[in-house]
Structure formats: C-alpha cells, structure tokens
Amino acid sequence: MATLDFAFWSAVGGYADQEGEMADIYDAHIAQVQMLEELGWHSYFVIEHQNSPMIGRITAPTVFLTAVARATSRIRIGAMMWQLPFYHPMRLAQEVAMLDHLSRGRVEFGTGIGVHEHEFIRWGVNFYERAALSEEVLDLVKRAWTEDEVTHNGKYFTFDEALPKPKPFQKPYPPIWAAVHSDPAIEFAARNNYHVAQNLDVDDVVAEKFDLYRKKWTEAKHEGSMPRVFLMRQVHVAETDEKAHEEARQFIASREGGAVPVGGGPVGNTRIGWGSHPRGMGSDSERFDDKRRGEVMVSARESYEFNLEQGLAIVGSPETVIKKLQEGQAKIGYDIFCTNHDIGKMPSDMVNNSIQLFGKEVIPAFEGTLGSGTAKVA
Questions:
Q1: Is 251 a domain residue?
Q2: Is 374 part of any domain?
Q3: What pTM did the predictor assign?
Q4: pLDDT tens digits, residue range 331-370?
Q5: Are residues 235 and 148 in contact, defined by beta-carbon separation less than 8 angstroms?
Q6: What is the CATH number of the domain that holds 85?
Q7: How many domains does the chain have?
Q8: How far is CA 358 from CA 236, 310, 337, in A?
Q9: Would you call the peptide bond into 166 cis, given omega within 30 degrees of 0 as the criterion?
C-alpha cells in the first residue's frame, strides 16, 4: 500500500452557523486546527469564495491562514484554492511568500480559476477569460518568487522592473497545486509539474482523470518524482456503522439539513442571481464534463445511497472507513486524502465526534516510518 497523508477541508462556519459572530467563528476554527495538528492531520485547507453569503467566510485566505500559522507549529496550511483571476499577481506573490515565512515553510499553494459565473459578474471580471487570466497570474507569481526584478508586458498585466519581496521561505517556492476538473486543466497541470486536487466527480471518473494526469506527466518527461494527488470527500465517522449512517443521513442528500444547491439560497434571490445559467457556470454549464458533473450533483442531492455508492461520501465506523480508504486508494491512487466532516447543517458536537474518531482511530492505521507511512491494516 502506498503512503497516505490526510488533509482537512474547512468551510469555516459553513452552512451550520449562518448567524454567528464572525470573530467567534474564526476563533473556533483556529482552535480546531490546533486540535487537528495534535490528532495527526498532515495539512489544513480552506477555500476562497467571493460574493457568496453561504460560504463566503474566507474571502481573504492569506489573512486567515496567517492567524492559523501563528497558532500552530507543524500542520501544513493552504487554500484549495486561491482564485487566481481575482488577484494582482505581485500582491498575491508577496502575501503568500510572507505567509510562508510566518509559518516557517508550511504553505501549500492551491490554485484555481473558479466556476461560479456570478462571482465574476459582480466584480466586473470576464468569466470566459478566467483560464487565460489565471495562467498569466500564476506565471507572474512564480517569476516574483524566483526573479529579483520582473518586467512584463502581457495581455492582462504590465510591470516595469517590479521588485517583489520577500521570496518564499521554501525554495524555490511552496508546492503548487492545481484544482482540476476538465481534461485541459489536467493536461495543463501535468505539463507544468503541479500537484493535482479533485473533489466533485464520482470515483470512476476521478480514477480516469488521475490516470490521464499520470500519463500526461510521464509524457512531459519531468525530472524528479511525480507530484502528489489529492482527493477530498465528505466523511462521517461514528462508533458503529449504524450510528454513523443514522447521523449522516440527516445531512447528506437532505433538503432540510444539507448544503444549499447551486441555483438556490440567498444568491438565487439577488438581482444577478447565479448568472446567466441555472447551473451557475454560464454557457460552460453545457460542456460535456460540466454537464455530467451537474447530473452527478443532482443525483447526490436526491439519494443518500448514491453518495456512498459513487464514493462522494464515506460513512461508517473507524474500521469501515479504514477499509473504504484502502479500497479508494487502490482504485484511484491518491496519496493525500482530504476529509470534509462539516456536512451541510450537521451540528458541531456530531462533527467534532467524527473528527476525534478519525484522528484517533483512522489516521493511526496508516502511520508508518516515513511520513504518514504505509497502512498497517491489511
């Protein structure tokens, strides 16, 4: 069995606490990361969203992660993702480099272009140019991290002898992750030797996409070892399988306790809404990959069993979860598994019990002599 590390995905308040004071929510989640560090998680990730009342607590991930960095000492930290089209590249490069120093080299730099059209409309950013814009931003961030001066005349940015400081603590720079879904995005990540992350497709499709990544990476003839592969899933652990399913069923594929679907919620009630298409991705919603993913999301909202059968959620006792992780790793080949315990409107005591059981009983089953090591369970 290959090595396996565990990351943690946090919605920082998510759907369960929409009325709480933000200062209290941030403090609670910083304390949570301290607990995760003691329980053995390898890394901690948040996700950036703009213009999103339901999941818009992390609009400035570098600021929040700086507070996390100063409250911890070992766990690696990052955003999956920083939304590249919304950034000035020199400012982003300098802020993340400062975070890398303040954490003493614990940053994981997750990058992506964003998928929700309304976020772009509200800021006057061209949704359909987001990939090209992001590519230029990322190229300039890497140059800012490795060159003493940056002179650039591009489609979106112009710099005349910019002098970006500081350079990152990690050399030449923090690990770069690409949050990928489409085949072109996967091929882009492979060509550029970036680590890759996925979270939305069913297991069979994820396995195909990661195989494509490994194929394209090999064809690119990069030096060194292959980058890492990351998969995020909803996870709920309880003392027994029966209890775990009884609890999770209330919040996975639940209209009352689940997450607000794209097209609904407070965004759906605004003048701009989710944009020009009910699926929230403009005309991209009709692309094959995105249309198929939309169908998956509909099924996931309607059927608890569908989530379990297709690998979108892992639910059970610690023993069952260990077995499911081993099966998924053998099929898909991930070496970082990211757990999302904050499911829909699940109450905090239920979430915390799941986290404690995962940390105390699941993670040790995969501990070895190197990193998180090889799995002890046959």
A1: yes
A2: no
A3: 0.93
A4: 999 999 999 999 999 999 999 999 999 999 999 999 863 3
A5: no
A6: 3.20.20.30
A7: 1
A8: 9, 21, 12
A9: yes
